[in-house]
Design goal:
12 helices; Dna Ligase, domain 1; single chain; nucleotide-binding; ATP binding; binds adenosine-5'-diphosphate; about 350 residues; binds magnesium ion; D-amino Acid Aminotransferase, Chain A, domain 1; alpha+beta; about 25% strand; Rossmann fold; 3 domains
Length: about 350
């Protein structure tokens, strides 16, 4: 590995998380130059017409203490050229598509002028379309690509409600899932057991729809004893964990809402399916959520579950599985705990390998 020659920028929004610190430490250990770059550092001015990165973070303490805020040790407009990096990993994009697009705009210009071609992760970033990172678009894309997803209707909340009231399309049956097209860690996923519950839910969510522009989908509820998180890096599966809710009142299996995590395996066909799901969604570093759909084929005893013999009974037919979503910039705390895989190191190695390909 030509580690030392590869310069990586990892872009992130919000505060520096534990995950980011782990990736930074892993890079250091591997001798790779990796900079954590907050989107707050992106700037340009119309005189130089260059989108660059400020060299230093502005301390927010300055705002809090009301002292005159200063950019320390920094000349006016001094900045880092985004083209200094060989690999640009946009780990999060969510609220920052504007900055993502500006950086890409700069890269394209320099690319044209200098013939330099940095590597962009994930490929979806190149499309510049935030909607493509949302769950609704993923449902459409996945199903079109022949990958099964839960039966889904997208539309306004009242339309979804009417759909259930009249059973007009697709013959949905309760219980159903109402799911925000955006959102993660189980924050915008809801279940309703009957029409009254659904109406209550719709009324509660309406405000976020009209005032914040949130979008929702109606989904069939798939009975399950957990789901699988497949971590994909490029064309390879790094590992699989199973997540299962530990409480009867909780239908969500997310680690963030208390789901148990354990090492798991899936038939090769299904691992291939996960890799393809990530690919069609334009993601290279992805957490693919997979659920067994046809559970009747899967009568597992506790003994088999405990001894990880589950997979021997598992169907290897991709049609028996649904992809719930493909996560960009997946969390990996629970995954490391369950699998023992050093995810941050593997991510760094993967990013370096892209340069050397
Ligand atoms: N159609 C569904 N049927 C049954 N359970 C679901 C369905 N969709 C989501 N869930 C449950 O909710 C959890 C979160 O849903 P997911 O689509 O992965 O969104 P998030 O981004 O919040 O993780 C899943 O891990 C699963 O346990
Ligand atoms: Mg999920």
């Amino acid at each position: 590995m030509k580690n030392k020659e590869t310069k990586i920028a990892l872009f992130f929004g919000g505060k520096i998380s534990r995950h980011l610190v782990l990736i930074k430490k892993a890079a250091k250990k591997l001798g790779v130059r990796l900079d954590l770059v907050s989107y707050n550092r992106v700037f340009f001015d119309t005189e130089t017409l260059k989108v660059r990165l400020r060299k230093f973070q502005i301390s927010t303490n300055n705002f809090q203490t009301n002292t005159k805020f200063q950019i320390t040790n920094n000349k006016k407009n001094d900045g880092v050229d985004v083209n200094e990096y060989d690999v640009l990993f946009f780990r999060t994009t969510g609220k920052h598509w504007e900055e993502v697009d500006l950086i890409n705009y700069q890269l394209k210009i320099t690319n044209y002028e200098l013939g330099k071609k940095p590597i962009i992760v994930d490929p979806i970033v190149l499309s510049g379309k935030p909607s493509m990172a949302c769950k609704a678009y993923q449902m459409l894309t996945l199903k079109r690509s022949g990958i099964e997803v839960p039966k889904t209707v997208y539309g306004s909340l009242w339309f979804l409600y009417e759909t259930m009231k009249q059973f007009s399309i697709n013959n949905f049956q309760f219980p159903i899932i109402i799911k925000g097209s955006g959102g993660d860690r189980g924050t915008r996923v809801f279940k309703a057991d009957n029409l009254e519950e659904m109406e209550k839910l719709v009324r509660e969510l309406r405000k976020s729809e009209t005032e914040e522009g949130k979008r929702y989908m109606l989904q069939e509820f798939i009975p399950n004893n957990g789901d699988y998180r497949v971590l994909v890096l490029g064309k390879k599966v790094l590992g699989v964990m199973k997540r299962s809710s530990q409480s009867l009142e909780e239908f969500k299996n997310n680690y963030s809402v208390g789901g148990k995590v354990e090492l798991a395996t899936l038939p090769q066909n299904i691992l291939d399916l996960a890799v393809r799901a990530a690919e069609v969604c334009g993601l290279a570093v992805a957490g693919v959520d997979v659920m067994v759909k046809n559970n009747s084929k899967l009568r597992i005893t506790n003994y088999e579950l405990k001894n990880n013999l589950e997979k021997e009974k598992m169907s290897d037919d991709p049609k028996d599985y649904v992809v719930l979503e493909v996560n960009k910039g997946p969390q990996f705390k629970g995954f490391m705990q369950a699998t023992g895989i050093n995810v941050p190191e593997e991510i760094v190695k993967f990013l370096v390998s892209l340069k050397n390909d």
